[in-house]
Every structure is written in C-alpha cells, then in structure tokens.
User: Which sequence fits this backbone?
C-alpha cells in the first residue's frame, strides 16, 4: 500500500472506506525482513489475534509455539521458540514481517509464510491433498496478520 | 534442535523377544545429523507401546489371522491359492527386510506389487486395492514373518537412481506450508507439533495399526497424509514417486528390527 494512495483516499473520503489491503505480492520487506507498513487500514485487534494464534482453522501458531500465559490453549508445540515474551523484544514491524513471511527474517526456517501466494512446490487446496486452483489465497488474510501481530505485542512475560 | 520430549529409554520386546529399536545410523546417514536411528515406538505413550509388546494384545493381529485364511483360499480363474504355490508363508521370512527392491526387469517394486502380480498374473484374480484391508493384511502377514530381523534394503547398483529420487523428495519442501519430510522427522523428531510427538518417521513397523482409525495403514497412505498436511497436492498411493520415497525412507531405518504390525495412536 503506497502511503500517497492511502492519504489521497483519506482526503477524498475521510471517515469512509480506507485504501485496499496490501496484496501478498506487494508487501515490501526490509533487508532484515521487517514490514513497516500495516497491511490493512484497520488496526490489529489482539483479542481476535489470540483466536488466529490458537485456532487450528486459522494460524494454528500453537502447533509450534508455547505462550506460557495462556495455559488453556491445549497442546502447545515446541518446534519453534516460546513466544511468551516476544512482544517485549520484537517491534511491530519485525513481527509483521515474521508472520507474513518468516523466511525473509530467518532464511530456510521451518516456519510457514502466512501471507504469500506464489512460489510453492505442488501447492494444494488447503488440506484436501488436491491441487490448488491458480489463485491460491494466503493462509491468513491481511486483517488476520494485523490481528495476530497485535496479539504478539501483548506477550510481555519473562 | 533441543529434543524436549525425545525418544524414551524403554526396551521393546515382542512376546519376550527383544527388538533393535535404536541403533547406529547407516553410513549413508552421515550428513543428516542423525547418528542413532530410533523406532517410532519410542515416541508413543506407554499405553500404546504396551499393545505392541504382546501379540495377544496387538489389535492388528486379527488382520494377520484373516490373512492366514486368505493365504489358503483359492481365488481367480487359475484355481490357485497363495499356499498352493508358496507352501507355508514362513518361506517369506526375511523378504520384508529387503523391500523395496529392484526386480529382474529393472523396476523398483514394493511388497504390494509382488502380491498383486501373483494375484493378477498367476491366480488370474482381481488386483487388491493398495490400501485396502485385504492387501494390507497380507502385507502384514508377510512382514510379520521377519519380526525382529534388521531392515536391510539395498541402495546401490540398480537401486541407486531410485534411492536418489526418493532422497530428493525427502528434502523437498512441498505445499503452501513449505515443509519437507526432513523438517519434521529429521530436524524436529522428539518435539511436539501441537498434540503430535514427532518421531523419525521410520517405516520398520508398517503396515501399522492406527488406534484412531482402527485399521492397518499402508506406508503410502501415511506418506499421503504427511504431504497433504503441508497443504500440498499429494502423490497417489502406488505411484512411482512413492515407491522411490519408500525405498529412501526404508534405507534410513536400515538396522532397525521389523516390528510389523506395529501399533500407533
Ligand atoms: C511449523 C512450525 C511453525 C509454525 C506453524 C509457526 N511458527 Fe513461528 N517460528 C517457528 C520457528 C522454527 C521459529 C524460529 C525461527 C528460526 O527458524 O530461526 C519461529 C519464529 C517465530 C517468531 C520469532 C520469535 C523470536 O524469538 O524472534 C515469531 C514472532 C513467530 N514465530 C510467530 C508465529 C506466529 C504468529 C505463527 C502463526 C501465525 C507461527 N509463528 C507459526 C516455527 C513455526
Ligand atoms: C500359480 C502360482 C502362484 C500363486 C497362486 C501365487 N504365487 Fe506368489 N509367486 C509365484 C512365483 C512363480 C513367484 C516368483 C518367484 C521368484 O521370483 O523367485 C512368486 C513371487 C511372490 C512373491 C515375491 C517373492 C520374492 O522373493 O520376491 C511374493 C511376496 C508372493 N509371490 C506372494 C504371493 C501371495 C500373497 C499370493 C496369494 C495372494 C501368491 N503369491 C500366489 C507363484 C505364485
Ligand atoms: C508437518 C509435519 C510433518 C511432515 C512435513 C511430514 N510428517 Fe510424517 N508424520 C508427522 C506426524 C505428526 C506423524 C505422527 C507421529 C510420528 O510418528 O511422528 C508422522 C508420522 C510419519 C510416519 C509413521 C512413523 C511411525 O513410526 O508410525 C512416517 C513413515 C512418516 N511420517 C513419513 C513421512 C514422510 C516420508 C514425509 C515426507 C513426504 C513426512 N512424513 C512429512 C508429521 C509430518
């Protein structure tokens, strides 16, 4: 999303619909993998982000990560590092980049890219085992990325 | 990677016979970072483990018994049974330790291929479905004849190109999640991924009885499931790709005892 486009839209239709979400193919990563510009106009919602984090049908981040302050989330995995304090040492820009495409921050990481639509080997149609159609949607929407980033920023333990 | 849960230190015996369920990795594993290969049994709960230790408790043995019946049953136009040509099934003792193998025509074949060739060409009966109950029961019966014997598949000579193909697949990051077999079973065995305790993904216990599905699971069915879970388009059971992958994965377990039929959650 170009800042000029955003402000132009704002000036024209103040209070109404914001500029469109940043498309997965338009996300701009810094040299270290950060994404400075939010993917949506609407600010992230940490409550919803917690759902994205824990629900199997959404991000299912707990498959790989422990968040100690939420013991009620069952079966927290250990493939990735615990994230209980990640909001204390990572910025929103870093977190947005890691969730959108962690390989920009950690080359070759096992962590999947959640806001990426191209460059896959034998992409499937979700968990059906069948081939994906051409316009493969990202695993998470722009808003879900912003929501989960907002949630991660609340994790300040340890 | 820290092995948080890791493999346990229990000893696997089946009807009192000790299995080799952990052993030094084969030479070809040198660049994998794995120096000890470990049976999937070591990553399961005590309750699940116990079911495999006594063939009377093993829920898969019902299917092995059914296969004994099928072994002696005449089917097909030729009027033959497995028994009429092969006598006792224990003549296949040791065969499973060498599977997959390259046949006289230069094709890589797995146990299901051998069984179906006899069904169609020699019995003139219908081929069994790859992951169907009959086929997997028969593969289990034949595998069970090698119980306790070390896996020993050949990877050189005519097997070499198939092995290379399988190895390449093992390290390919398939699907929208971009995960390879190695990402889960080489880099992360011992770790939990959500509720699942990751093992090394060995095949020495196959066909395995899955408590969740209450039936025998073929190797190719397991491969399909794992690839599907990466949000990928899978390969078909019985495809050449899965034959090659089966050879490569089996070779990673060379030295481990055949545990067929193993019990998993
Ligand atoms: C399949 C495993 C897996 C899944 C699923 C996964 N991650 Fe990760 N994640 C990792 C690994 C492994 C790392 C460590 C990075 C590396 O490879 O060095 C990591 C790193 C991170 C980091 C950086 C931690 C730090 O200390 O800097 C954040 C933040 C993170 N993940 C958030 C998430 C979120 C949010 C989701 C879900 C939307 C998620 N992860 C899903 C495996 C995973
Ligand atoms: C009419 C005879 C006949 C019948 C019936 C028959 N087979 Fe065979 N089978 C053979 C012959 C011949 C071979 C090839 C032997 C060889 O390659 O040395 C063979 C090979 C095999 C092999 C491969 C052995 C090896 O060492 O590679 C397996 C496994 C096998 N049969 C299983 C079965 C099963 C299971 C059945 C019944 C469903 C069956 N056969 C029925 C004749 C028969
Ligand atoms: C996203 C993680 C993941 C990936 C990628 C993956 N698997 Fe698995 N696999 C699992 C889980 C979870 C299980 C069940 C627990 C266990 O035994 O590890 C499993 C089980 C297995 C088993 C059964 C082991 C036993 O002892 O019962 C085999 C064999 C296997 N996988 C092979 C493969 C192969 C081959 C590939 C690549 C084509 C692969 N897996 C990719 C997660 C994965």
Assistant:
């Amino acid at each position: 999303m170009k800042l000029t486009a955003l402000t132009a839209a704002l000036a024209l239709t103040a209070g109404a619909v914001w500029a469109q979400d940043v498309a997965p193919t338009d996300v701009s990563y810094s040299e270290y993998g950060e994404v400075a510009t939010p993917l949506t106009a609407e600010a992230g919602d940490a409550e919803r982000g917690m759902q994205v984090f824990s629900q199997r049908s959404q991000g299912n981040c707990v498959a790989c990560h422990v968040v100690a302050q939420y013991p009620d989330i069952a079966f927290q995995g250990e493939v990735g590092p615990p994230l209980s304090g990640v909001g204390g040492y990572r910025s929103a820009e870093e977190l947005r980049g890691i969730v959108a495409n962690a390989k920009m921050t950690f080359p070759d990481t096992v962590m999947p890219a959640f806001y990426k639509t191209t460059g896959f080997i034998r992409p499937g149609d979700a968990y059906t085992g069948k081939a994906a159609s051409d316009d493969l949607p990202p695993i998470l929407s722009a808003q879900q990325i912003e929501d989960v980033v907002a949630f991660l920023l609340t994790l300040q333990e340890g | 990677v820290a092995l948080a849960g890791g493999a346990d230190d229990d000893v696997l015996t089946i009807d009192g016979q000790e299995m080799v369920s952990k052993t030094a990795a084969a030479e070809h594993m040198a660049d994998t970072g794995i120096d000890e290969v470990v049976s999937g049994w070591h990553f399961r709960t005590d309750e699940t483990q116990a079911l495999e230790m006594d063939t009377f408790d093993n829920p898969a043995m019902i299917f092995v018994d059914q296969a004994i019946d099928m072994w002696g049953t005449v089917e097909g136009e030729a009027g033959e049974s497995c028994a009429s040509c092969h006598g006792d099934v224990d003549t296949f003792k040791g065969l499973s330790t060498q599977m997959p193998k390259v046949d006289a025509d230069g094709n890589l074949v797995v146990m299901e291929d051998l069984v179906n060739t006899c069904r169609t060409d020699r019995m003139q009966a219908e081929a069994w479905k790859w992951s169907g109950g009959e086929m997997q029961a028969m593969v289990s019966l034949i595998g069970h004849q090698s119980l306790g014997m070390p896996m020993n598949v050949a990877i050189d000579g005519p097997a070499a190109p198939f092995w290379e193909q399988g190895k390449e697949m093992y390290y390919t990051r398939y699907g929208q999640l971009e995960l390879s077999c190695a990402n889960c079973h080489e880099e992360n065995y011992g770790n939990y991924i959500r509720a699942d305790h990751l093992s090394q993904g060995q095949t020495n216990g196959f066909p395995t009885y899955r408590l969740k599905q209450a039936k025998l699971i073929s190797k190719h069915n397991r491969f399909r499931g794992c690839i599907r879970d990466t949000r990928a388009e899978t390969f078909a059971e019985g495809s050449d790709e899965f034959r090659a992958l089966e050879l490569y994965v089996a070779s990673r377990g060379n030295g481990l005892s055949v545990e067929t039929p193993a019990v998993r959650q």
User: Anything to note?
Assistant: The interface with chain B takes residues 56, 60, 62-64, 74-79, 110, 112-113, 120-132, 136, 139 of chain A (CB under 8 Å). Residues B 40, 43, 179, 181, 183-185, 193, 196, 198-199, 201-203, 205, 208, 222-223, 226-227, 229-230, 245, 249, 264 surround heme C (ligand 3) (CB under 6 Å). The radius of gyration of chain A is 16 Å. The helical segments of chain A are 3-12, 46-54, 86-89, 92-100, 142-153.
